[in-house]
Design a protein that fits this description.
This protein has 271 residues and is of the alpha/beta class. The chain has a single domain (34-270), classed as 3-Layer(aba) Sandwich (Rossmann fold). Helices cover 40% and strands 15% of the residues. The chain contains twelve helices and eight strands. It has helices at 2-16, 33-40, 51-54, 58-61, 66-83, 99-111, 130-134, 142-147, 175-179, 184-195, 212-217, 234-245; strands spanning 87-91, 118-122, 157-159, 163-166, 199-203, 222-228, 249-256, 268-270. The chain has an eight-stranded mixed beta sheet with strand order 3-4-2-5-1-6-7-8, sandwiched between helices. Strand 3 and strand 4 form a beta hairpin. 40% of the residues are buried.
Length: 271
């Protein structure tokens, strides 16, 4: 908690500056000093045998579908870098579209970019699924991070040297209130201040089910919408695009669960 509070204070100072003037801060060299220490101090995630196959994490298995996520990764990285964005939300119109599968695949695909650091957080506080998908034994809770009850380091795992995951073991008691919390902006700024990630990705709840995702979208730079082929309707997608555009930047749409018999990829990306 002391480290988190100190990071929050530094983030507030960096944002406000001294005497109300914008602050200018030199970033540390990647892989050196305190920044490297906080990453190396995170517990390591060692997936059990077969976990990637069972969770459909094709970005780590290769094969026919794997390169599709690399294409999404490249397009996302290009657009975010061009606009100076660092925070990406991933959501869907309704449950069952595969947004968590897409989030994890994109995160693990980014983990292969060794010169970039990525943090992936599970913000679906009502129906978390990562612990089951990744067979996590830790009872982590990104909800406790967002409320300031615990620090990020106590609720995160590291895969390799440049990819960190913060999962949610069980449903939070008051998810909407947590995501509406006044301290959320400072918590997110503190994580960025301490870990200096190139990108932070947030797996949000579906947009048309509760107001949870709407509450969090104001804290990100852009959002990616995951729609399910033959399930998500054009009306749902249009509605979601309007809701996203009213709060942040609409990055694109991923069409998931495509069933092609030919050599085409099973995932699509568009606007």
């Amino acid at each position: 908690m002391e480290r988190l509070q100190a990071a929050i204070a530094r983030a507030r100072e960096a944002r406000e500056g001294v005497g109300g003037e914008p602050a200018v801060r030199a970033l540390p060299v990647a892989g050196a000093g305190a920044e490297a220490d906080v990453w190396s101090a995170l517990p390591v995630y060692q997936p059990e045998r077969g976990v990637f196959e069972a969770a459909r994490l094709v970005s780590m298995m290769g094969g026919r579908d794997g390169p599709a996520f690399d294409v999404v990764r490249t397009k996302v990285m290009h657009q975010m870098k061009a606009n100076g964005w660092k925070r990406l939300a991933i959501t869907s119109p309704t449950a069952g579209c595969g947004k968590s599968t897409v989030s994890l695949n994109l995160g693990f695909s980014l983990s292969r970019q060794k010169d970039r650091r990525t943090i992936l957080c599970e913000v679906d506080l009502r129906r978390p699924s990562w612990s089951k998908m990744l067979r996590l034994k830790e009872r982590h809770s990104f909800a406790r991070v967002l409320t300031g009850e615990q620090g990020f380091a106590a609720n995160a795992l590291r895969y390799g040297s440049n990819f960190a995951l913060s999962s949610t073991f069980e449903a939070a008691r008051n998810p909407a209130e947590t995501l509406h919390g006044a301290v959320v902006p400072e918590i997110l700024a503190a994580i960025e201040e301490e870990y200096q990630p190139d990108m932070m990705i947030f797996d949000l709840p579906p947009l048309l089910v509760t107001d949870d995702a709407l509450a969090f979208l104001v804290h990100v730079d852009c959002a990616l919408l995951v729609a399910a082929a033959e399930t998500s309707t054009v009306g749902q997608i249009d509605n979601c695009e309007r809701e996203i555009a009213s709060r942040t930047n609409m990055l694109g749409v991923v069409l998931n669960k495509c069933r092609y018999s030919g050599p085409e990829y099973g995932y699509g990306y568009g606007y």
